[in-house]
Amino acid sequence: MNYPDNVKKLHPLQVSCQQQCLPGELVCQCITGLFRDNYGKCVTRAQCRGQTVPACPVNEDYFACGTRCEPTCRDPNPVSCQHYCVQGELICQCKVGFYRADNGTCVSDCRPGE
Description:
This protein is mainly β. A two-stranded antiparallel sheet has the order 1-2. The chain has strands at residues 7-8, 29-30, 35-36, 42-43, 60-63, 66-67, 85-86, 91-94, 99-100, 106-107. The chain is built from no helices and 10 strands. Residues 56-108 form the TIL domain. InterPro entries: Ser_inhib-like_sf, SerProtInhib-TIL_Domain, TIL_dom. It comes from Oesophagostomum dentatum (Nodular worm). Keywords: Disulfide bond, Protease inhibitor, Serine protease inhibitor.
């Protein structure tokens, strides 16, 4: 299957990209720097006409469908949590390879006490 250049393929058996997050379903998300508009297309921030797109802090990316199991310094590989989407929220979460520290920032290298 051919995927649009601005959509990241998340699973080789995935047939189509979903506009909504559905519990237990695989979804496509826009690549870094693009945002899902009200029509389900991946667009630049400037193309988000009248839509609010959060400005994320350093080392975080915007997700229309984040995870309830964001890796943290205390639990870098959360496996005891259901990996369902956080539905109905525009959310900033740590970029891949970063962890949520106790002070709320996203860090690539956890230090004692973070």
